[in-house]
Amino acid sequence: LPLSDGLQSMGLCVVPVGVEGGTRRVLDFTLLTKPHALIATPSFGEYLIEQAPKLIGKNARELGIRWFYCAGEPGAGIPSLRKKLQEGFGAKVFDHTGGGHAFHGISCETEPYPGMHFVSADHCILELVDPETKDPIEISHGAMGEMVFTFIGWEGGPFMRYALGDLIQIYTEACSCGWPEMRFKILGLSLWIAILLTLLISALLGIITERLVIRPAMRAPHFNIFIITLGVSIVMKSLSGFIWSHNDYPYPSVFPDETISFGNATFDLIGLGNI
């Protein structure tokens, strides 16, 4: 992996265990090699905290991890998740994006979370566009939009004005840690892109399951793809929740958190959000 190669070129020792070997294997190699840093998705970090006492009889704090780098998902920018990882591992927690390409950002230790430092300006041209119209947005303090980047000096097939669909907010003021350059926060994936990707992946899994599994097993010519896709989606959602757990966040109500009275009757406005 490019990230592993880059770390090794800096003189670091990398133990690329990977999660495909199972959680027990990851924990066993952590005990064996005693690494100082761990790069993983925040959800897998949570799962390690929960499973360590069951699988190896030790708390995650006893693994000796000093630094936890969140990758692949929002992590350090969510206060409750950041606190859980800090307390669970007894480590400092950072956000990181990039690793496999020339767009890189990493957060610092400053509290409250100041976003990620854009550390690859000499390798990447960053632009902002409107997620709906794709019109350019000026990069200024507080600006929000879909990030588009072009790689400079990239070997192979360079990314030219490439969009991942991520929405970010830009901060041009210096960070309180002393970093003088631009920072950014990832706000999430564009809703319509997320919906489209979910539908495409679910449909693909449904077609593969119908053609390669259900047809041969049931000896039937065809089955309803919609029903199978829906079933596969439910199974995958339940399976991912069983493996990594779910992070539930309250959906904001459109009504204020207060009550109103009409005569002897009192109504909780926020409860109207359930209608």
UniProtKB/TrEMBL annotation:
SUPFAM superfamilies in the record: Acetyl-CoA synthetase-like
Ranges annotated as spanning the membrane: 186-208, 220-244
InterPro entries: ANL_N_sf
Keyword Isomerase tagged: no
Keywords per UniProt: Membrane, Transmembrane, Transmembrane helix
Name assigned to this protein: AMP-dependent synthetase/ligase domain-containing protein
High-level lineage: unclassified sequences, metagenomes, ecological metagenomes
